[in-house]
Design brief:
The chain is of the alpha+beta class. The protein is built from 7 helices and 6 strands.
Length: 318
């Protein structure tokens, strides 16, 4: 956007009003200095017809020219006794207005720089998430999926402690599938979850706790900050993931957003592996049932045959 520094309505009014009054005063003196009046009149027409842009260099130049011209006219006609002394209000108003415009321009530049910085951060985050998506496991083995997920989380965040819990709906609890540096048993009831994990159960996304000393203990014995995220796939809570560090405030909002993206993809991989495991178990159970049924039928047939043979032999002997 371009605005005028010296032709805004208020500035134009000040310029033409002071110039008119000064010319009236000058014509009432013995030496009216009409040449100065002509110079100021021409300058007023020029600045009104050709507004100065809001660009910094042009604005500064316009202010310098405005001040220099009016001071020169006043100085050449008697300084404070000059009939054109009122025209000094014009460059003062111009300088004030230019300063306000420059501040607004700086604010816009700062805002644009902030947007560019955020876009750069978002681009970096998307690039990292793309790398994560490529490195997440394609295996349907649950153990391999858990190991690969933890390896990727460790590589990205370098935590001093971590834990990956899988939902056990039958027992209304959680199975600790992987952990390091934490004080958790192999299985945990929902009611016994540590406070940060319990809060993550109902959270919509990852939660950053920059200083655990203010909110309660974390999972580790010496950790001071952490990020806790629910693992949801197909609108179902399938697990919880937590990372913690010893030094407080070292985990940032960028880390939180990145772990949120990792969790979304890891949750789907873990859920796929669990469903595959269930289907495989169901297939194995059905196969065992079929074999047992076949064995039962074969034994029954053999016993019936033996019974018939014994009956025939008994009749023959009698």
């Amino acid at each position: 956007m371009t605005n005028s520094v010296t032709s805004a309505p208020s500035l134009a009014a000040i310029r033409w009003t002071t110039l008119t009054l000064s010319v009236v005063l000058a014509t009432s003196t013995a030496r009216p200095s009409l040449a100065c009046a002509a110079v100021l009149f021409g300058y007023a027409v020029w600045t009104t017809a050709r507004p100065t842009s809001e660009e910094r260099r042009a604005t500064n130049l316009a202010v310098v020219v405005d001040v220099a011209l009016h001071v020169a006219v006043v100085a050449s006609t008697g300084w404070w006794h000059s009939p054109y002394v009122l025209t000094l209000l014009s460059p003062i108003a111009t300088a004030t207005h230019a300063n306000a415009l420059l501040r607004r321009a700086e604010a816009r530049e700062s805002l644009a720089l902030t947007h560019m910085t955020r876009l750069a951060e978002a681009n970096g985050l998307l690039t990292e998430l793309h790398r994560v998506a490529q490195s997440l496991p394609v295996s349907l083995d649950l153990t391999e999926t858990v190991a690969s997920t933890i390896a990727r989380v460790t590589e990205l965040f370098q935590p001093n402690a971590h834990a990956l819990l899988l939902r056990d709906e039958a027992a209304d609890g959680w199975i600790v599938a992987a952990s390091m540096g934490v004080r958790l048993p192999n299985t945990v009831k929902t009611a016994n979850l540590p406070a940060p994990l319990a809060a993550a159960v109902d959270a919509a996304g990852a939660t950053l706790v920059a200083d655990l000393s203010a909110t309660g203990p974390g999972l580790g014995t010496v950790t001071s900050s952490g990020i806790y995220v629910p693992l949801r796939a197909r609108n179902e809570l399938v697990g919880l993931l937590a990372i913690e560090r010893i030094i407080p405030t070292t985990l940032t909002e960028r880390d939180r957003a990145l772990l949120d993206g990792v969790a979304e993809q890891a949750a789907l991989a873990l859920d796929n592996a669990r469903w595959f495991g269930r289907l495989r178990q169901m297939g194995a159970d059905e196969e065992r049932t079929r074999i047992a049924r076949d064995l039962h039928d074969n034994v029954g047939q053999a016993l019936a045959y033996m019974s018939l043979e014994l009956s025939r032999i008994s009749r023959d002997t009698t």
